[in-house]
From TrEMBL, chain A:
The keyword Iron does not apply. Keywords: Phosphoprotein, Two-component regulatory system. This is Response regulator. Coiled coil: none annotated. It comes from the Bacteria. Pfam families: Response_reg. The modification 4-aspartylphosphate is found at residue 52. It comes from Demequina zhanjiangensis. Residues 2-119 form the Response regulatory domain. InterPro entries: Bact_response_regulator (IPR050595), CheY-like_superfamily (IPR011006), Sig_transdc_resp-reg_receiver (IPR001789). Transmembrane segments: none annotated.
Automatic annotation (TrEMBL), chain B:
The keyword S-adenosyl-L-methionine applies. Pfam families: CheR (PF01739), CheR_N (PF03705). This is protein-glutamate O-methyltransferase. It catalyses: L-glutamyl-[protein] + S-adenosyl-L-methionine = [protein]-L-glutamate 5-O-methyl ester + S-adenosyl-L-homocysteine. It comes from Demequina zhanjiangensis. It is an enzyme of class 2 (transferase).
Amino acid sequence: MKALVIDDSRVMRRIVGGILTDVGFDVVEAGDGKEALDRLEEHDDVQLCCIDWNMPVMTGFEFVVEARKRDEWRDITLMMVTTEGEQNQIVRALAAGAHEYVIKPFTPDIIIDKLQFLGLVEAKETL
Amino acid sequence: MSLAPDTFDFVATLVRQRSAIQLEKGKEYLVESRLAPLARSAGAANVDAYVRTLRANTGLHEQVVEALTTNETSWFRDITPFNMLRNTVLPDLRNRGSRRIKVWSAACSTGQEAYSIAMTVKDHHPDLDLSIVATDLSEEVLAKGRLGAYSQLEVNRGLPAPVLVKHFVRKGATFEIAPPLRQQVTFRKHNLLDQPPMGGPFDIVFLRNVLIYFDVATKRDVLARVRRSLAPGGYLFLGAAETTIGIDDTWERVHEGGSSVYRPREGK
């Protein structure tokens, strides 16, 4: 499984990438939405994108809108991972085609929880 | 820092008497971590010193029991039981002619389980008339459950974003459960060793991740009380690590899709 982590913060890319690596993803990175579109062109096996909202050049929201125009990418799961937590922003992102939304700050189990909901990581019953 | 043995024994006895929860040896860390904030706020030097004051001051006992019996909780904790509720249990109750569904969420903590049940019914079986009684030993968690307001970190945990935007209203820094769902849940203080709460008989009981804390005799006792609180044909959900098997054979297990639910055997 391959995941694309899109964030303009290198530290944040490393944190999110580390969580995804731990649950079995190969991780590629992009620093803004435009670069992320290029990565998707290069890697046709990406199944998941974790997307920051506020980035230079092209925002995460604009990336979602662009990515959703492409038929060959329709099976890619798009998950926003952002400090933007206003309800109308969550609604906008979901309406544009994002599947999930994680508000920063988060802990690794929150990301893993979401991946279980999305069927990307096997759901396990826990204590 | 390690806890003095007599501190642990005193706390374990207190908790067992008040809640029937068994704190085994090896749970010293739990006592230490849960009581440290209470010790600090009471101005005690450490947990040992704080517990010494408890011997004389029984008025503090309740908050100690609360601190040790409050469990971590999250939305749709484990997905599989909620899938089973939606795909198997509710359709079965509906087929048997029930439109009014009564649920007991036992040891409900801050209400996430109860509200998750309400969301499941609203999204997938909106015609059912649902009422939930959510109970816990701790007044503190019940108050929070009634309020139905959760922090950003709390709603991040286990709650799918489409569900969040559908059933919550953002108020400043918190997300509040929308009023129609909140009205379906009644929060009540209740000890599992007492008679079942008012509001039954129940079609469905959620008693998840509670029995693990009890000894076998108490497990049997609690299961017997739960059985009496169930309506005919009712269902019991337990936690993933819990079972009635080998404890109480008056239950049968229905296993499906990686999850289990229990029903009283006919004639038992």
